[in-house]
Amino acid sequence: MANENIQFNRPHMTGKELYYIAEAKFSNKLAGDGAFTKRCHQWLEITSGCEKALLTHSCTAALEMSALLLDIQPGDEVIMPSYTFVSTANAFVLRGGVPVFVDIREDTLNLDERLIEAAITPRTKAIVPVHYAGVACEMDTILAIAQRHNLHVVEDAAQGIMASYKGRPLGSLGCLGALSFHETKNLISGEGGAILVNDPALVKRAEIIREKGTDRSSFFRGEVDKYTWQEVGSSFLPGELIAAFLWAQLEEARCITDQRLACWNYYHRALEKLEKQGMLRRPIIPDDCTHNAHMYYILLSSDIDRQLVLDAFKAEGVNSVFHYVPLHSSPAGLRYGRVHGSMSVTDRQAERLIRLPLWVGLSDEQQDHVISTLIKTLG
After folding, report:
1. Any idea what DSSP says for residue 252?
2. CB count in 10 Å sphere of residue 56
3. Could you tell me if 208 and 214 are in contact, meaning their C-beta atoms sit under 8 angstroms apart?
4. How deeply is 54 buried, as exposed, middle or buried, from its count of CB atoms within 10 A (0-12, 13-18, 19+)?
5. Which among 28, 243, 349, 366 could disulfide-bond with 36, CB atoms 3.0 to 4.6 Å apart, if both were Cys?
6. Residue 2 scores a pLDDT above 80
7. pLDDT at 38 over 60
8. Are the C-beta atoms of residues 79 and 145 closer than 8 Å to each other?
9. Cβ-based neighbours of 61, under 8 Å, separated by 6 or more
10. What is the pTM of this model?
11. Going by C-beta distance under 8 Å and a sequence separation of 6 or more, which residues neighbour residue 170?
């Protein structure tokens, strides 16, 4: 086993992807919004309960659409965590928005809802909670703050497909939600994403923005006799081959999620002893949250050198990684954003976190090797 290379991630295929891609090809419809796109839209709308689901070529695109839909203008402020992928901030910076970075919670590593209200100024336009590891932010509190201050909430649910908060799917609680189907996510299409439009007032504009600023969608539904340029937009559609691949994944969404949960739970049980010994901290899942096993991470004790652990994994053929360099300390974050309050939790947890391999098909034997390597290194 020591000579085997255990990948950090292995994209899973259900077996129907290539069949559906061939079906799309022979339908002579390869551009976006064909039959497979429509199936994916319907599945997302039924599953999430959103007003309108629209596939995009990435979650980044869905976030960029969100910034356009909210009419973000230069100087508008958007509250978000610093411990997130660059797209969360970049989508708003592209419109001239200013990311306002707020610290995260100790337990879930999500945006600390207790710190949001103090960060609000007259220029604040939106709050962007990021559901880290498919574990929901404290959305009731966040939505209540937004309502009090007349702010929009855009959920960055890139990691959140098949996860929920108090029974409600992630991405369906704010006015807009963004999903990812990148090959590193639970359900994949290589590259891909979706925007969930929960506010009925935004549906028509979402279709226009996604179709290069035209009312082309209305034209194809027979609602207008020609389509024309209506407002600013871009080409956010994925091709039909991407949608065909994704449809094979959505059909098996429950099975894929259950298999990932089995791997997650295997790690969680096995690492309980190390947590009790004070070597590490395991993920914490609040009672109101149903997670999707997007990742299994550990937070090392502060006196343990993370690089030594990563080097030990590498020597044993285990591909393990840490996660984000916090945006507030990055060159672009310093240039385009600002920090509100202390970022001590973000800085501390970012230095301690390691993600373990997790993918459909990861065997008990492979997980045992990851676990035994960790035990040996920490012991």
Report:
1. T
2. 25
3. yes
4. buried
5. 243
6. no
7. yes
8. no
9. 193, 195, 236
10. 0.96
11. 131, 134, 136, 155, 157, 160, 161, 163, 164, 177
